[in-house]
Write a structure and sequence with these properties.
Alpha-Beta Plaits, three-stranded antiparallel β-sheet, two-stranded antiparallel sheet
Length: 188
């Protein structure tokens, strides 16, 4: 009799779920709203002069725990816009197939040259499609919405607030007194 009850319960559960409205959303057709702090991919934005903001300091390459960032510094050159010497990069490659999305590279960037964007990359069938070179990263900066966090903002969040020093009131010479004697030690 127990076997029959268990079978009936299982059949009932199957029938209830078979006619339930599906909860799964089809990704390419319906895109769910994302949280404000959602981060999915990376971008290399331009600085205020329209040049790549990255100066090739290699901080992001060194801190990456997955070792997915590879860059080649181009040395210092004269800027065609400002005329001043500045550092440039020749190559910047980021492999999203092995990236863990920790955002450490964004946190250490002092020039806000690498940011995370809210829109994910297009789903790919080959790993090579998930390798972002400098061209793709710069296109992401122009076409996709940057996440809320930049290196400067994230570094400010890590610093403890500076404590204010208590105001020390100076005693007037008339009210100064001799220091109080130390209390006597107790003997047992």
């Amino acid at each position: 009799m127990g076997y029959f009850n268990d079978t009936a319960k299982a059949l009932r559960t199957t029938m209830v779920n078979a006619f339930r409205e599906p909860v799964t959303q089809e990704f390419p057709l319906v895109i769910r709203p994302r949280a404000e702090r959602f981060r999915a991919s990376f971008a290399l934005p331009d600085d205020e002069h329209g040049e790549v903001a990255c100066i090739g300091c290699l901080a992001c390459e060194r801190i990456c725990p997955s070792r997915v960032i590879k860059m080649k510094s181009g040395g210092k050159k004269d800027s065609p816009v400002t005329g001043k010497k500045r550092a440039y990069i020749d190559e910047f490659v980021l492999d999203l197939s092995a990236c863990i999305g920790c955002e450490l590279c964004v946190q250490v960037c002092n020039s806000d040259a690498i940011v995370m964007v809210r829109q994910p990359e297009v789903p790919a069938f080959a790993r090579e499609d998930l390798v972002l070179d400098m061209e793709k990263l710069r296109a992401n900066a122009k076409l996709k919405t940057a996440s809320w966090g930049t290196g400067t903002r994230l570094q400010e969040m890590q610093e403890p607030p500076k404590a204010e020093k208590p105001a020390v009131a100076k005693a007037s010479p008339a009210t100064e007194t001799a220091p109080a004697p130390a209390p006597a030690k107790e003997t047992v």
